[in-house]
Design goal:
Elements lengths: L3 H22 L8 H11 L5 E4 L7 E4 L13
Antiparallel strand pairs: 1-2
Amino acid sequence: MKSSTENLIRDVHDEVIRWRRHIHANPDLSFQEKPTADFISRELANLPELTISRPLENSVVAVLQGEKPGPMWGTAC
């Protein structure tokens, strides 16, 4: 039986590829990534189980609660 996290990953795989293509087709200057952050925030808001915040206008923090205890984190630049 697959976990809900594995199912979520499978369900959004094609969508994430579309996001990557969109981001690479619409580059922003360094420290001026607000359009990209807006896009990411808007797209992630459509996914279940995520808590999203915008600590800065050019950043997005999305938290996905895992099934096992303990910290885990990832980052994208």
